[in-house]
Design brief:
By secondary structure, this protein is α/β, with parallel strands linked by helices. The protein has a domain at about 30-115 and about 185-265: P-loop containing nucleotide triphosphate hydrolases (Rossmann fold, 3-Layer(aba) Sandwich), CATH 3.40.50. The chain has helices spanning about 65-75, 95-100, 120-125, 135-150, 170-180, 200-215, 225-230, 255-265; strands at about 30-35, 40-50, 55-60, 80-85, 90, 105, 130, 135, 185-190, 215-220, 235-240, 240-250. The strands form three sheets. A six-stranded mixed β-sheet has the order 6-9-10-3-11-12, with helices on both faces. Strands 2-1-4-5 form a four-stranded antiparallel β-sheet, covered by helices on one side. A two-stranded antiparallel ribbon has the order 7-8. Helix 5 runs parallel beside helix 6. The longest helix is centred in the C-terminal third of the chain and has 16 residues, at about 200-215. Bound molecules: adenosine-5'-diphosphate and magnesium ion (MG). Adenosine-5'-diphosphate binds next to strand 2 and helix 1.
């Protein structure tokens, strides 16, 4: 295995779309993204392709730059340099609403939902349906219900219960359902299972899988190897702000990912795995 990035496109220069790397155009393409905070170089020349219908896992040790990269995609941080393409066109995101307008939904661990509001209110927050002057509660309830059902989220007792009364896994499910309700094309999740128990982790990972199977692109941050190998189709590994590898899961195993996360390189090749992963 080479220790260099698999997606480097040396010919890509500012303003020119990089040559296709084979296969379909990815939904999102990042090239040469750099970001520093004063003396801290959080991201250095990061390249990443995010295709539709797949789960891309973003792994990396604490401080590797995972959250900063996600915030660049979500329009929270403006990169210092580099280019971003969305469905083949170059884009510049200056605000989270720019990302939302493209169909990028970010599910943060704690900040995703408002505790004091119920499930319907959360799913329609900022996008309430109005009929004449009154909110169209009935149609919002029906859409919220339909979306949860279509994702096979069955553990929620009432969609009118406040989100504060939900378990961590249920909260994540509602946040994911919100992304589905709004037809998001890319759903980004930062450590969605970090605070969850075994059963809830399973529920959320199943949901992530179903999201990708519907054709949504999912980018999931995790440093939990079990989660990564359970749900991901592709694994991207950041080390000290550099993308060390982006490969299909079949070309990775836990030891390789750990090597890449901790040293930025791996000389191992994939060992045959009985479960195929
Ligand atoms: N707003 C900020 N101001 C200054 N430094 C930051 C900021 N956000 C992140 N950093 C630094 O950038 C580096 C990458 O951070 P981060 O992306 O949060 O890592 P992680 O991979 O754990 O999510 C770290 O060194 C962190 O201290
Ligand atoms: Mg982080």
């Amino acid at each position: 295995m080479e220790d260099t990035t698999d997606q480097v496109s040396p010919g890509a220069s500012a303003g020119t779309a990089p040559a296709p790397t084979g296969g379909a155009e990815p939904l999102l393409r990042l090239r040469g993204i750099s970001k520093s905070f004063g003396p801290v170089q959080a991201l250095s020349e990061v390249d990443l392709d995010v295709p539709v219908g797949h789960v891309t896992a973003l792994a990396g040790d604490n401080g590797a730059g995972k959250s900063v990269l996600i915030k660049c995609i979500a329009g929270i941080h403006a990169p210092d340099s580099g280019q971003m393409w969305w469905e083949g066109s170059q884009v510049h995101l200056h605000h989270p609403r720019d990302a939302a307008a493209l169909g990028i939904e970010t599910v943060y661990q704690d900040l995703a939902l408002c505790d004091n509001l119920d499930i319907v209110e959360n799913m329609f927050l900022g996008r309430e349906r109005v009929r004449r002057i009154a909110l169209d509660e009935e149609s919002m309830e029906q859409s919220a219900k339909d979306t949860l059902r279509s994702l096979a989220v069955t553990t929620v007792r009432s969609i009118r219960q406040p989100v504060a009364s939900l378990s961590g896994g249920q909260r994540q499910s509602v946040a994911i359902a919100k992304a589905v309700l709004w037809n998001s094309k890319l759903v980004i999740m930062d450590e969605p299972t970090a605070a969850l128990g075994v059963a809830q982790t399973r529920m959320v990972l199943d949901l992530v899988r179903r999201l990708a199977d519907r054709g949504v692109a999912v980018l999931i941050v995790s440093h939990n190897m079990n989660d990564v190998f359970e749900v991901a189709d592709r694994i991207a590994v950041l080390h000290l702000g550099r993308m060390t590898a982006v490969r299909p899961v079949a070309e990775m195993d836990r030891q390789i990912v750990v090597d890449l996360m901790t040293t930025g390189a791996s000389t191992r090749s994939v060992q045959a795995r009985p479960d195929g992963r």
